[in-house]
Amino acid sequence: MGKGKIVAGILAPHPPHLVYAENPPQNEPKAECGWESLRWAYERLRRSLSTLEYDVLIVHSPHWRTNSGTHFLGVPHFKSISVDPVFPNLFRYHYDLKVDVDLAEKICQAAAQDGLETQMMRNKDFRIDYGTIVSCHLTNPEWNKPIVGISSCGAARYFNMDVLQAMMFKLGKATRKAVEESGKRVVLLSSNSLSHRHFTSEPELPEDMSHEHINNHNQYIWDMKMIDLMKRGRSKEIVDVLTDFTEQATAETDSGSLTWMLSALDFPTYPAEVHGYGTVIGTGNAVVEWREANV
Ligand SMILES: [Fe+2]
């Protein structure tokens, strides 16, 4: 068996609005249109990934929040309905997905060996969160690859961002080690928005784009700063400013997803490809791909 490899890392935000606007058969509510700049960004991502051979998607989700430690999906098959608690009018999605339990166990063990609190989640009736589902659906709507699902722990709230990041550096390193030992080729998904202050009411027609814009200019400036660092391959600088970014832009990076992924990629110095940026109920979202040449 050859050495496994992380072949790409994707910033893959999960607004349920994007699935709603795509009208896949799995989702009950139907839309006329909406949020095209982001949906077209995901189209570009899918075209890019179609040139890449990979075995598994590993997704770290802000909406599978475990208050203590990091948990991993540990059941081979899940089939049920996922409803967004904030937007049940937009997202009632029937999922049917496979899990690479073997790889999940390897990452879980490697992280535990490095001192992290970890646990395999063995409840076959567990409801998969919409962060995991939306990011995976928009990246691979065929669902023809198994996933590894990783929870986000609450360390940023219990302690602070610096504590969380120290943990995510270890989780990323453990992920890379386990992938290399597995012999598999994997794509990582960091399932989070950037700036995350959002409006508290929605228009009568949710996809009425005359209401859609960034919540405030401060957020926009921060999002552009982060994207500029991504485009210039300044991963270390991203994690250095992430505490301030997360606080000042109320960013969803408090989940640790982005820190985990940049650590797993060993803090890339090559430029990331920005497939697109757009807002959803005022939050800032970018679809961004990190891929080394010649993978
Ligand atoms: Fe979210």
Task: Explain this structure.
The chain has 295 residues and is α/β, with parallel strands linked by helices. It has one domain (5-290): 3-Layer(aba) Sandwich (Protocatechuate 4,5-dioxygenase, Chain B), CATH 3.40.830. It has helices at residues 16-22, 36-49, 101-113, 130-139, 155-158, 161-182, 217-231, 235-248, 257-264, and strands at 5-11, 56-66, 70-73, 77-83, 92-98, 118-121, 147-153, 185-190, 273-280, 283-290. The strands form 3 sheets. The protein has a 6-stranded mixed β-sheet, sandwiched between helices. Helix 3 (101-113) crosses helix 6 (161-182), helix 6 packs across helix 9 and helix 7 (217-231) packs antiparallel against helix 8 (235-248). Bound molecules: fe (ii) ion. Fe (ii) ion is lined by residues 14, 62-63, 131, 252.
The strand order across the widest sheet is 7-2-8-1-10-9
Average pLDDT works out at 97
- Strand residues, percent: 15-25%
CATH architecture: 3-Layer(aba) Sandwich
At the first level of CATH, the class is Alpha Beta
Give the helix tally: 9
The rounded Rg comes to 18 Å
Q: How is the biggest beta sheet arranged?
A: 6 strands, mixed
- Poorly predicted ranges: none
Question: What's the SSE pattern?
Answer: EHHEEEEHEHEHHEHHHEE
